[in-house]
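Reader question, answered in our methods column.
A reader sent in the components of a multi-part assembly and asked whether the whole thing could be modeled at once rather than chain by chain. We filled in our standard form and ran it. Here is what they sent:
COMPLEX SIZE: two components
ENTRIES:
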Amino acid sequence: MIAPGESRVERWLRCPEKTCCSYYTVFVTGDDLTRIARTLAVAPWTFTAALPCRPEEFGAFALDKSEKRFRAALVRLRFEEHEKPICTFLVRAPDGAARCGLGEGRPATCRSFPAQLVDNRIQFETSGCTCDWSQVPPSAADAELLRAEERTRGSYTSVVATWNEYVASVAAAAEFTYQDFCRYLLDAYSP
Amino acid sequence: MSDACATCSGECCYDVIVRVTGYDAWRIKRAQALDFGQFLTIGPDTPAGPGAFTLDGERRALYLGKNAANQRACAFLMHVPDGIRRCGIYAERPRVCAVYPMTFTNGSVALRSDVRCEASNWNMATITYPYWRRNLLEHMFESHLYGLVAEHWNRRSANGGTLPQYYAFVERCFDTIDARRSEIGEEAFDDLMLHWQQAIDEDATARVETFLADVDRLCAAQTSTTAPAATTAGPA
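And here is the structure of the entire assembly that came back:
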């Protein structure tokens, strides 16, 4: 059901299914990871994991001198045997309606969902979503949000590049853990 | 979040019946885009407290709903890996949760005697007293405001009407009360909370009386508004 004049954020917030929280792997930036950790007072490696990726992917970080690279993503849990793994931060109202337990503190990519900037134009990428977005127009606020997200991603790229240079510069046998990388981010994004 | 809460597994969110004010419910409804009926339950006004409202001749109160799969846990308790639990509506959590486990004892911030977490986790020499005092004052003041709203409802009808009508009434009242709060600003509202029940400054006392008179007038205006019973009934 679509309420007249509903914005993208209102539409997403009201959705009781939130299939996007199980369909997509939510990759986070250092800004997301440290903000959530500080808000919840929880170590970032408890709610994120390092997933293998290609070196050219956004936010790809090294843990040793090899070519292996990883990206930080939110952990998904399977609460019931028959259910798909779902974002660890999903909560359900007593009637089953799904809501994000992070609220306004959710990752940038979740805040802008399903809007994306493609060639400087906003598109809705809704392949993992059961909602009808056809009547929800992108707004100027969406464009501003996406541009802010791009700036944050740019900063994260620099922060990760510094880390990767450091890993490349240490003794050949040195290995780092994902916790080392998270601690580096907490330091780099200190308030 | 306090250091004690940061190491906690959310014991206070289990086996506890959380009585909320209409203001709490209004905030959660707005932030989470839920209808009242999706997250509230109605129960008896026992023990009697502010904000009891009459439905079908019985005095009732608002309570936060439980997790559908685990009736011991709060519906909004969020499970993070490693057995860590956190509030999934932290920014707009009920005031009674925000003040836990503190209370006022003889005018001072003190640990509740029935605290469910380890009392030794709370170092009363190092807690931030202004933070807790403000939260407690806000809880008490908002409970009082909700009491005024419920009184208007109870006066309106001997039987109090239907639950959807009550929800609609509460929503309209807090729409206007919160708008008035925004008009006067956070600093002025803090001043009201501080001087409410403390007649140490005549000017401040007059400001409190003016604000409460405004609230009374705003609620009275809502009692004369006829709202369709189905306004807030059922999920969207």
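What stands out: The helical segments of chain B are 3-6, 22-32, 36-39, 95-98, 129-156, 163-184, 186-195, 202-223. Residues 226-236 of chain B have pLDDT under 50 and may be disordered.
Send us your own complexes using the same form.
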